[in-house]
Amino acid sequence: MVTEFVGRNGILQELERHTIRSPQTKRRKVVVLHGLGGIGKTPIAIEHAIQQQDHYTAVFWLNGKSEETLKNALVAAAEQIPLPAVPDAQAKLRTGESSIQAAIAAVMQWLENMDNSKWLLIIDNVDNQASSSNGTDDSKDQYDVTRYFPAGFQGTIILTTRLSRLAQLGSGISVGEVNIVDGIQMLRNFAGQSVSDFGKIRIAQAGPGSCQVLML
After folding, report:
1. Of 34, 108, 130, 168, which one has the fewest beta carbons inside 10 Å?
2. Distance in angstroms (rounded) separating the CA atoms of residues 130 and 137
3. Are 185 and 145 in contact (CB under 8 A)?
4. In the chain, what's the furthest Cα-to-Cα distance?
5. Does the pLDDT value for residue 138 go beyond 50?
6. 3-class SS letters over 148-168
7. Cα 69 off chain centre by
8. Contact at 8 Å (CB) between 151 and 114?
9. Computed from CA positions of residues 186, 192, 196, 201, in that sequence, does the dihedral angle turn out positive or negative?
10. Are 10 and 150 in contact (CB under 8 A)?
11. How large is the average pLDDT for residues 42-56?
12. Mean pLDDT, to the nearest integer, of 52-81?
């Protein structure tokens, strides 16, 4: 398994520009990473959180594959964060006395606190989004992710999705295929070798816009 993040510097810089370096310092930043499945959207979002960890006071990765998984992720978040506005929230969650909706409400209340402005939510795999604003659609699995955006203007939200139309929710960044050098580095990492060892790599250009990287 590839354990070291490779490349994507251009996208990471764009992500940084739309988040921590945005001139809209008093407004929430919403960035939508969109592209084909398996193209690397999730690793990019996580790498941003790692590189910019000193900027954020709290980072949460939430599984947005379905409304149910997102709710469960928010409940898990409620078990981890301090909830001074709702003193008994964590204890009630542990004993089963608090409902899922109450736990989500407690998390939203914490995120909406005006003194709590430097959190980051990564809502991953948001691919089952209803096309209508009221959340209704042909598929029962589709939902409206914006219903789970905290009220107010603070904080940062990064969505990863296959749906380019969700770029309208914020600043859209299209994630494409990795370039040749980054691709070689990924293969080298997988094999435990260094990208500087170009002498053992032969790139066979198969045609315009395509190539084959041969590991020799």
Report:
1. 168
2. 5
3. no
4. 64
5. yes
6. HCCCCCCCEEEEEECCHHHHH
7. 15
8. no
9. negative
10. no
11. 91
12. 91
Q: How far apart are CA 46 and CA 66, in angstroms?
A: 20
3-state DSSP assignment of residue 72: helix
For helices 67-78 and 100-111, the axis angle rounded to 10 degrees is 70
Strand ordering across the sheet containing 119-124: 58-63, 119-124, 156-161, 29-34, 171-174
Q: How far apart are CA 139 and CA 106, in angstroms?
A: 29
Phi-psi region of 149 (alpha: psi -120 to 50; beta: other; left: phi over 0): beta
Is residue 208's pLDDT more than 50? Answer: no
CA distance to 7, 39, 44, 109, per residue, from 178 (Å): 8, 8, 12, 39
Q: What is the Cα–Cα distance from 42 to 46, expressed in whole angstroms?
A: 6
Split at pLDDT 50, 70, 90, the class of 70 is: very high
Q: Which long-range contacts (CB under 8 A, 24 or more apart) does 91-96 make?
A: none
**Cα gap 143→129, rounded to integer Å:** 5
Q: For residue 77, what pLDDT is reported? A: 87
Q: How far apart are CA 125 and CA 32, in angstroms?
A: 11
124: its two tokens: 């991953």
* Max mean pLDDT range (88-97, 109-118, 141-150, 206-215): 141-150
